[in-house]
Amino acid sequence: MGHKTHPIGFRLGIIKQWNAKWYGSDRAYKDLVKEDLTIRSAIRARLRDAAISRIEIERSTSQVTVTIHTAKPGVVIGKGGSKVEELRQRLGKTTGKVVKVNIFEIRYPEVDAMLIAESIAQQLERRVSFRKALKQSVQRAMKSGAKGVRVMVSGRLGGSEMSRREWEREGRVPLHTLRADIDFGRAIARTTYGTIGAKAWVYRGDVAPPPRAVATNAPTARPAAPVAPGAPVVPAAPATPAAPATPAAVAGS
Questions:
Q1: Is pLDDT of 99 > 80?
Q2: pTM (predicted TM-score)
Q3: Cβ-contact 198, 126 below 8 angstroms
Q4: Exposure pattern of 198-212 as b/e (b: 16+ CB <10 Å)?
Q5: Domains of the chain
Q6: Given this model, what pLDDT does residue 245 score?
Q7: How far apart are CA 192 and CA 14, in angstroms?
């Protein structure tokens, strides 16, 4: 039987970082987790067409910092920053804390796994052929610099009675290599004949491990073994002087 694990969770603390960075006590932990889910769902519901890849949340004593990574920052900000200010006020009322909203632009959305999965799901909702959607997504990602792409859709594809899975892949996606930078995303297409799930894996290359630091004052000679307490100390033997060199015999003597 297969033992599948989340590619990002598998690399947390090695080459990936957490999307929520805060510490909560035993009593407040469950409330903060629920508040994080509320913030994420509210942002994605309000900005569904903004191509949001991920949302990072950081907490301090009385402030919540929300960082939105999007491929369409203009849709999030709005005219003159009206939309982002309205979003900040709404999140502040929901959490009861001071909320700061940061927006980062995704330069290459073609190699972002979450945006690839959402693009496929949106095309399936518009009744685009799933084979065409998969092939185009893989080709765009490979042309944009990805070293490997794998996408999958599962459900009643094409309105068939029997649900099935279909794959499309190109390049290599080493899921077991911890230093491999693999992005993963999934989305759901809600069609008239049921829901269809879409998943995407993108391999961007290996992340070089940090160089090992070498101590400059490391001892060169091996230190002497410690002497047990109470053991007699044996003095070192004096060095034997070298024998004088024998003069060479004189020729003809």
A1: yes
A2: 0.80
A3: no
A4: bbbbbbbeeeeeeee
A5: 17-105 (3.30.300.20), 109-206 (3.30.1140.32)
A6: 53
A7: 42
